[in-house]
Amino acid sequence: MDSMKTAHPSADILLSQLVLTTEALGPAVEAxxxxxxLPALYEGLLRFVDIDALHLDYEQSSPAGxxxxxxxxxxxxPGLVQQTMELxxxxxxxxxxxxxxxxxxxxxxxxxxxxxxxDTELRRAFFDIGDIHDECVVGSDVQGVVYGMSVCRTRRxxxxxxxxxxVVKHLATLVLPLAALHKRLAGAVSTDAGTAGIPDSLLAQWxxxxxxxxxxxxxxxxxxxxxxxxxxxxxxxxxxKPSSVETYxxxxxxxxxxxSRRQLLASFVKSVPFRDQSLHV
Length: 281
Prior knowledge:
This protein is of the alpha+beta class. It has helices spanning about 15-30, 35-45, 80-90, 120-130, 160-185, 200-210, 215-225, 230-240, 240-255, 260-270; strands at about 55-60, 65-75, 110-115, 130-140, 145-155. The chain folds into two domains: about 15-185, 2-Layer Sandwich (Beta-Lactamase), CATH 3.30.450; about 200-270, Arc Repressor Mutant, subunit A. A five-stranded antiparallel sheet has the order 2-1-5-4-3. The radius of gyration is 22 Å and the shape is elongated. Keywords: DNA-binding, Transcription, Transcription regulation.
C-alpha cells in the first residue's frame, strides 16, 4: 500500500461548467460531417454567448493568391443568412481586407469588427442586409490551413463585451479543429459555378423585373456594382470615364428609388431567390 502513488489533483473547475460544455457542444461533435453540424454548433454556442449568425471558413495562400473557402453559415434567420453569405463568399470574400488580420500562427487570434468601423463600402452593405452591427472573428492555423469563425449580432443586442469576446476566443480552441474536421469529412460549400461572380442571367432577370426602366448602360453599371467592381474598373470595362459611370449610377439609383451601392446590393440579395435560381451548379 505504501508504494501506491497519489493521483494528481483534479483541475480546479466546477462540475457544472464541464456539464454545460459537454451538453452544449456534444451534439455538434456528434454531427461533424453532416448537414446538422452548423445548426448544432450554432445552438451550442448560444448556450455561452447570444448571437444571431455564425460563419465558418478557411484561408489558403498559394502562388496564385489567397483563396477563401466557405465551410458554412447558420443563424436566427437561416434563409437570409444562407442567401447573403452565398453571395458574399462567391463574389467578395477573396477581396475582404479583414482576412489576414490577426490569424497568423496556431494560437487563436481575435478581431472585433464594428459596423461603425468597417471601412469598405461592400462589407458595410453585408452588415446592412442582415442588420448586423457587431462581429467577432477568431482564427488560427490548423494543420497548415487558417480556419476562421465569425459570430455576429444584430441591433437587437449590444456589442460584444470583453468577457464575451474572451469566451468566444476560448471556445474557438475547440470549434476551429471541429470546423477543420467537418471540412475534411463533408467538404467546403461550393460557390463556384465555373466563372467568378454572379450569373448574368440572374442579374438581368432581377433588373428586368424592376419597375424602373433602366437603359442598357445603367443596367450594366448596376450589374457591375453588384458583382463587386469598383467605379474605376467599371469605367475601364465600358470604355468610359469614371464620371460617366457615376452619372449612370445616379440615374439608375433614382429610378430604382435607392441612394447607394449598399442599398442596391441589399435590394438584390433580399429580392432574388438564390435557392430557386441557384448560384450553384
